[in-house]
Prior knowledge:
By secondary structure, the chain is an alpha/beta fold. The chain has 7 helices and 8 strands.
Amino acid sequence: MSTAVSRGTSPVPPARQPRLTVLSGPSGVGKSTVVAHMRKAHPEVWLSVSATTRKPRPGEREGVQYFFVDDGEFDKLVANGELLEWAEFAGNRYGTPRQAVLDRLEAGEPVLLEIDLQGARQVRESMPDAQLVFLAPPSWDELVRRLTGRGTESPEVIERRLAAAKIELAAEAEFDVTLVNTSVEDVARELLALLR
Length: 196
Ligand code: ADP
Ligand code: 5GP
């Protein structure tokens, strides 16, 4: 008969490391929608607010969706090493303020970045433990419909974003996990589970 014996030597489980998760995917796939849906139910989930040279869309507020800066201010953020990563995307620059992210990780809180493929690659280089999540559209036609239907960009900008989307979709295999955005509710739930 075998008896389970506690020898008192079982190792203390390692403290869970706070995780940095990157959410990427082509423009119009629904990243902002999914994140907003998740944070409505779970406002405690912290999302990094990026700096961008893009002009605000109607309804976007300074310090909420982005810190809206001009080219000179963005240059300074880069020169002073204040960005964890940054990239030019479809004619504008976007970057993640470094200190806020480090403070959250230091405090043991999970961190979520919603950034483009170039940024995701930079994070993978500088923080190899980061979890990279790719949000994919159900189909190419549906992506075009969503990006066009959002109605926030000119036809020329939509073309630039669709050109970038082809490159981003081809890079899906670089990510740790793919979530297909068919249902916002389902994807928001899956993303929340990945953050925890
Ligand atoms: P991204 O942040 O990836 O650029 P958005 O969140 O702005 O994309 O979404 C683009 C458009 O697609 C919006 O009009 C949004 O309402 C719509 N959308 C997002 N997710 C879905 C979904 N699962 N089904 C249908 N439409 C969606
Ligand atoms: P949008 O103009 O639609 O808000 O964003 C355009 C693209 O820029 C999206 O793919 C979005 O994820 C990405 N983006 C937003 N913030 C950042 C950032 O700080 N860094 C990088 N690299 N990309 C970002």
